[in-house]
Design brief:
2 strands; 189 residues; 7 helices; two-stranded antiparallel ribbon; mainly alpha
Length: 189
C-alpha cells in the first residue's frame, strides 16, 4: 500500500459523514431543518393530551384541521428545501406566510416555538445562495486583474521592478489627458 491511497483504509462512518457534509453544503440544510422543526409542534399540539396526575388536559381546538394542514405543509416545504433547492425562495416565502398564519389558527403558532422555527427556516431559505466554484474568480476580481495587466503595458520598463516583499509596490496612477481637461478642478469650483 502506498501512503497516497488513504481512502481505502477509512472507516465507513467517516466516508458517510464526508458525503453528508458535501450534500449538506449544496443546499439550504439548516433552513429545511428549522422549517421541519417548526411544522412539528404546530401539527402536534392541537392533538396532544397532557397528563398531570389523574387530570388530563386536552389542547385540541376547533382549528385542529387547520393546524394539521399548516404543520404538514411546513414539513413538506422543509423537505422541498432539502431535495429541490432550486425553489428555495418560493419555499422560504411560503414558510414565512404559513408561520404567520399559524399564530391565529394553530394555538399561537405551536405555542410560539413552531412559529419561531418556521419563521427562521423561511428567512434562512430566502437568504441562502449556492456557493461559487473555487476555480472561478469573481467577476469584479477578474476585471481588476485584467485592468492591472493592461496598465503594466503602459508603465515604462524602469518602473516594472520585481520585489520579494509581501507588499506590492505602489505604482502612480496614470491619467488620460481627457480626464484632466478642466485643469484638475472640481466642476463646482
Amino acid at each position: 500500500m502506498s501512503p497516497e491511497s488513504t481512502g481505502q483504509n477509512e472507516h465507513y462512518l467517516t466516508v458517510y459523514r464526508r458525503g453528508f457534509r458535501t450534500w449538506r453544503g449544496n443546499r439550504p440544510f439548516w433552513a429545511g431543518l428549522f422549517t421541519i422543526l417548526g411544522g412539528l409542534p404546530i401539527a402536534y399540539f392541537p392533538y396532544a393530551n397532557m397528563h398531570l396526575g389523574n387530570m388530563t388536559i386536552a389542547m385540541s381546538t376547533t382549528a385542529g384541521a387547520g393546524s394539521l394542514i399548516i404543520g404538514v405543509l411546513l414539513i413538506t416545504l422543509g423537505l422541498t428545501m432539502w431535495f429541490h433547492h432550486i425553489v428555495r425562495v418560493f419555499a422560504g416565502v411560503a414558510a414565512i406566510l404559513l408561520a404567520l398564519i399559524s399564530i391565529p389558527v394553530a394555538n399561537i403558532g405551536g405555542f410560539i416555538v413552531g412559529f419561531l422555527f418556521a419563521l427562521l427556516g423561511g428567512a434562512l431559505s430566502i437568504a441562502w445562495v449556492p456557493g461559487e466554484a473555487k476555480d472561478a474568480p469573481a467577476s469584479g476580481v477578474a476585471e481588476a486583474q485584467q485592468t492591472s495587466r493592461d496598465d503594466t503595458s503602459e508603465v515604462p520598463e524602469q518602473r516594472q521592478e520585481s520585489h520579494d516583499t509581501a507588499e506590492a509596490p505602489r505604482r502612480p496612477t496614470l491619467f488620460k489627458a481627457a480626464a484632466e481637461a478642466d485643469g484638475g478642478r472640481h466642476r463646482a469650483g
